[in-house]
Design brief:
Chain lengths: 154, 175
């Protein structure tokens, strides 16, 4: 039991260190900051819903090193991203470029929203017109309504 | 009746789209390198570290670059197929790119499972792998006489991929 507690205590001590994302190595903090900023925008191809900054996959570690080297070599953010796109395709970008093949991706949701609004408004207009156009009640209708109301009260 | 026709059509179209999406494999990300020259490299041979190999040496030949590793589980699924087709003499020369592996492990793996490769090169730190956009071993590149990548197989080569894609393309490129 004592031993168990010791292990548990040790685990509690380790935990915060493990939880940190892609702990930057003790290196140039400016480079590391740029690395994290770029890496967060890049998809890891092994665990596709993780960024290269967050993924523990070996490829992500390699790619972080590669990006770090490119930054140190004086490349701009743009050049670093182009480097990876040239090898892994546009899929690595979480924010794909705005160009003909991605128009549908970028504009599609707004088009759908617009279609929804147009449909909604045309439906509402049609409905209010239907209410206005309804023929006025006749004397017989009124009597029937009264009878029905009374029935429901009793 | 007419009132329900439009929503019904839209619904069926949506289902069709989603059903199509389910048949796609999200792990298969088309490589931007297909149609581009195979990236140059110079790596030591696995069997003789003193000798370097570069893709330049394969100019004028149709060849396959197969990325493998001893730690890669699905390589064991693919390997017998490569061995079998290479033994039948229907495969073009296959160069192995031993990716992020230990030399001893790699050599032992080849002894155990067979070595269908013209030669293998050791990409110990995976740098060449990055240049080729490797993200999941095994991967295989079909490279033409001019050194242009014509096809990339992501994941293990299946019998079907071999018969329906790789071999017909090799035949076409060799003409």
């Amino acid at each position: 039991m004592k031993r168990f507690c010791a292990v548990l205590a040790a685990l509690c001590l380790i935990h915060p260190a493990l939880a940190r994302e892609a702990a930057p190595m003790a290196e140039d903090p400016v480079v590391e900051e740029r690395l994290v900023k770029i890496a967060e925008e890049l998809r890891c191809l092994v665990c596709q819903n993780e960024s290269i900054a967050g993924s523990q996959a070996e490829l992500a570690v390699d790619l972080r090193n590669e990006v770090r080297d490119l930054i140190k070599a004086g490349k701009t953010d743009r050049q670093v991203k182009d480097f990876l796109v040239a090898r892994y395709g546009e899929f690595v970008l979480y924010r794909p470029q705005f160009k003909p093949t991605t128009y549908a991706l970028w504009i599609g949701p707004f088009v759908l929203l617009l279609v929804g609004f147009v449909a909604l408004f045309s439906y509402l207009r049609k409905r209010s017109r239907k209410v206005e156009d309804a023929p006025p009640l006749t004397e017989a209708d009124r009597k029937r309504a009264e009878v029905l109301l009374k029935e429901s009260q009793s | 009746m007419n009132k329900f026709l439009l929503p019904l059509v839209a619904f069926v179209a949506l289902i069709g789209l989603l059903a199509f999406g389910l048949t796609l494999n999200p792990r298969e990300v088309p490589s931007p390198l297909v149609g581009k020259p195979a990236p140059a490299f110079s790596l030591p041979k696995l069997h003789d570290e003193q000798i370097m190999f570069s893709p330049q040496e394969m100019k004028g030949k149709v060849w396959l670059l197969n990325v493998w590793a001893s730690w890669c589980v699905s390589c064991r699924e693919e390997h017998p197929i490569i061995v079998e087709y290479a033994a039948r003499g229907v495969l073009p020369p296959v160069v192995g790119l031993n990716y992020k592996d230990k030399r001893d492990d790699a050599l032992r793996w080849l002894l155990r499972f067979g070595d269908p490769y013209l030669l293998s090169v050791a990409d110990v730190d995976g740098r060449v792998g990055i240049d080729y956009g490797v993200y999941g071993v095994p991967e295989t590149y079909l490279i033409d006489k001019a050194g242009v990548i014509r096809f990339k197989q992501i994941g293990p080569i299946t019998r079907k991929a071999m018969e329906e894609k790789i071999l017909p393309l090799v035949k076409e490129l060799n003409q």
